[in-house]
Design brief:
The complex is a heterodimer of chains A (116) and B (114). Chain A is mainly beta and 116 residues long. Chain A has no helices and eleven strands. The radius of gyration of chain A is 13 Å and the shape is globular. In chain B, strands 2, 5, 6, 10, 11 and 12 form a six-stranded mixed sheet that branches. Chain B has a four-stranded antiparallel sheet with strand order 3-9-8-7, with no helix packed on it. Chain B has a two-stranded antiparallel ribbon with strand order 1-4. The chains are: A mainly beta (116), B mainly beta (114).
């Protein structure tokens, strides 16, 4: 149980385009989803927290207009990187927390974004 | 504010040897503590967690961790390491704020030599 998927697993795009990453909880309802960014050989940096049906809460320094987060249902959250640039290239990981286990996050496999 | 520290950036052990990865926490009350493992290019997998009760916690893949309040530690152990255990290991705690977000340590990269 507690499986989280991400799609796509990797994406390459041109500078200036927008990229959407999906995060799904497959076997539980996720009241809260988190989006992280991870640079090579570093720990995870929390970007934002989203609760189903409400606006995401962004961490300090994260541009909300650049990283659009939507959590439209209890099983799906999306992260859209708008007008992507090479410095946005990174590994993006989502996690989900369910109704029954409000202190445990389950992580997706991550999405490798490369902006050319 | 809550925090966790992983003093060892990189550790190498021989296959079959025992393993202990260190994690120290900073928090006044009893913290919620987690160990996650990340294989290269993958997401994080939960190994085990501690909220309260028995201070020796059993996890998946033969891992265990012991909560020691006197030492502010939550070290991860495995009696016999397998080559497939080579990965990055993260200790984490929960921020007690409204979002209960995870606070990660910097990670320990485990290499296993034959």
């Amino acid at each position: 149980g507690a499986v989280v998927s991400q799609h796509p697993s990797w994406v390459i795009c041109k500078s200036g385009t927008s990229v959407k990453i999906e995060c799904r909880s497959l076997d539980f309802q996720a009241t809260t989803m988190f989006w992280y960014r991870q640079f090579p050989k570093q720990s995870l940096m929390l970007m934002a927290t989203s609760n189903e049906g409400s606006k995401a809460t962004y961490e300090q320094g994260v541009e909300k207009d650049k990283f659009l987060i939507n959590h439209a249902s209890l099983t799906l959250s999306t992260l859209t990187v708008t007008s992507a640039h090479p410095e946005d290239s990174s590994f993006y990981i989502c996690s989900a927390r369910g109704l029954e286990s409000t202190d445990t996050q389950y992580f997706g496999p991550g999405t490798r974004l490369t902006v050319l | 504010a809550q925090s966790v520290t992983q003093p060892d950036i990189h550790i190498t052990v021989s296959e079959g040897a025992s393993l202990e990865l260190r994690c120290n926490y900073s928090y006044g009350a009893t913290p919620y503590l987690f160990w996650y493992v990340q294989s290269p290019g993958q997401g994080l997998q939960l190994l085990l967690k501690y909220f309260s009760g028995d201070t020796l916690v059993q996890g998946i893949k033969g891992f265990e961790a012991e909560f020691k309040r006197s030492q502010s530690s939550f070290n991860l152990r495995k009696p016999s390491v397998h080559w497939s255990d080579a990965a990055e290991y993260f200790c984490a705690t929960v921020d007690g704020g409204a979002t209960n977000k995870l606070i990660f340590g910097t990670g320990t990269l485990l290499a296993v030599q034959p």
